[in-house]
């Protein structure tokens, strides 16, 4: 069933679990993620980021993911991840996404507020939830030249109040595209933020979070946790093994069977770590 971010992340933030938002690129991995969620009776978020909608344009990706969501037995949110401008975000709104993220985190604070507020007002008019980022979660690749700045609690509260967003992504120690689980979460900062903010908090770059940290993380007001690299690594490793095992196989469907089973297994493991199993009944 199709769900919106505000309802599923809000419920999670209040009840000490978090909903996993998995970055997906098409039918196969989105279906694998939803299968994992259905087996665990868990809500889940299918997140299409900018590289995904470059690969499959938003007017195709939106209806595809929405169709998968509507046919699922559990709540599934269809989410635009890291939309960088008004046009991209509103394209997602028009083409079936039930929630969107606008990422103005590389901008000066006042400009981030202005653009986020404009997008939130427009998206809310269509009944679509809005996430935005304050501070800036960096990237593991320094060549990208992206700012990495921890979120300030006072500034985060002001940002939420002035924009009217439904969920706020905060920077508390994670880094995008980490291939090792070495992220150190600043829990003192996270707790200071949650004391001042009433909307659900969002953690990006969680593939780098050690498994044993998730239990503490979901005991806070974090309601949504983004995971992308872990799925890509599972897919890539399994595909390489499949090609070694079947060097003369050329059928795409057959070659993808093993890798998608690996994606499903990884998604299921992360859902369990977030305490989300059984929450989609």
TrEMBL record:
It comes from the Bacteria. Gene3D superfamilies: Aldolase class I. SUPFAM superfamilies: Aldolase (SSF51569). Zn(2+) 2 binds at residues 103, 133. The active site is at residue 81. Pfam families: F_bP_aldolase (PF01116). Keywords: Metal-binding, Zinc. Its cofactor is Zn(2+). One of its GO terms (molecular function) is aldehyde-lyase activity. Zn(2+) 1 binds at residues 82, 176, 204. One of its GO terms (biological process) is carbohydrate metabolic process. InterPro entries: Aldolase_TIM, Class_II_FBP_aldolase, FBA_II. Binds 2 Zn(2+) ions per subunit. One is catalytic and the other provides a structural contribution. This is Class II fructose-bisphosphate aldolase family protein. It comes from Cohnella fermenti.
């Amino acid at each position: 069933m199709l769900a919106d971010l505000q309802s599923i992340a809000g419920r999670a933030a209040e009840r000490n679990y978090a909903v996993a938002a998995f970055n997906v690129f098409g039918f196969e991995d989105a279906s694998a993620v939803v299968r994992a969620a259905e087996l665990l009776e868990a809500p889940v978020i299918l997140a299409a980021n900018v590289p995904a909608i470059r690969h499959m344009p938003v007017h195709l990706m939106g209806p595809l993911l929405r169709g998968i969501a509507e046919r699922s037995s559990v709540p599934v949110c269809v989410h635009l991840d890291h939309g960088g401008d008004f046009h991209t975000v509103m394209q997602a709104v028009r083409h079936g996404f039930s929630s969107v993220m606008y990422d103005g985190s590389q901008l000066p604070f006042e400009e981030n507020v202005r653009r986020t507020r404009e997008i939130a007002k427009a998206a809310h008019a269509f009944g679509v939830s809005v996430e935005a980022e304050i501070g800036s979660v960096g990237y593991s690749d320094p060549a990208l030249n992206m700012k990495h700045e921890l979120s300030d609690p006072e500034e985060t509260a002001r940002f939420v109040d002035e924009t009217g967003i439904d969920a706020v992504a905060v920077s508390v120690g994670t880094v995008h595209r980490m291939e090792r689980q070495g992220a150190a979460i600043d829990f003192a900062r996270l707790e200071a933020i949650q004391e001042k903010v009433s909307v659900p908090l969002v953690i990006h770059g969680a593939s780098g979070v050690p498994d044993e940290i998730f239990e503490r993380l979901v005991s806070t007001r974090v309601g949504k946790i983004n995971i992308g690299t872990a799925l890509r690594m599972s897919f890539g490793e399994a595909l390489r093994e499949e090609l070694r095992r079947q060097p003369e196989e050329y059928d795409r469907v057959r070659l993808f069977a093993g890798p998608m089973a690996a994606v499903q297994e990884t998604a299921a493991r992360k859902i369990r770590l977030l305490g989300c199993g059984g929450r989609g009944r």
